[in-house]
């Protein structure tokens, strides 16, 4: 299973991935700093990740994680979307994004979720 992170805190993503131990069982796709939604859509089209973990703030005034979620859904992304924000699902839902899973930047939650999702991917 291949996992893509959309985030502006790439050092935190790397730490989360290492602490989760997921590298032994899953593939972490290249980390690319968030710039805009079009770049995300192109990256997803090229890499075809099974799971996308999305931060909420993204360090951008032009778009947040909820905007990315909506764009991915409108583009027909069929994989699993996961909130990776300290604010959980609330930030995404307040901004009109329907997202099912959250890991709250927690390595244990990441490992447990990927284990669960790997049985349905």
Describe the fold and architecture.
- Helix content is 42%, strand content 14%.
- It has 5 helices and 5 strands; from the N terminus they run E-H-E-H-E-H-E-H-E-H.
- The protein has helices spanning 10-20, 37-47, 65-74, 88-94, 107-118, and strands at residues 2-6, 27-28, 51-54, 80-83, 101-102.
- Strands 2-1-3-4-5 form a 5-stranded parallel beta sheet, sandwiched between helices.
- Strand 3 (51-54), helix 3 (65-74) and strand 4 (80-83) form a beta-alpha-beta unit.
- The longest helix is centred in the C-terminal third of the chain and has 12 residues, at 107-118.
- The radius of gyration is 13 Å and the shape is globular.
- The mean pLDDT is 93.
Topology as a string of helices (H) and strands (E)? EHEHEHEHEH
Largest sheet at a glance?
Answer: 5 strands, parallel
Strand content: 5-15%
Report the mean per-residue pLDDT as an integer. Answer: 93
Structural class comes to: alpha/beta
* Total number of beta strands: 5
User: pLDDT under 50 segments (min length 5)?
Assistant: none
Q: Terminal Cα separation, in Å?
A: 8 Å
What is the C-alpha radius of gyration, as a whole number of Å?
13 Å
From the spread of the alpha carbons, the general shape counts as globular
Strand order across the largest sheet: 2-1-3-4-5
Number of helices: 5
Oligomeric status: single chain
The helical percent reads 40-55%
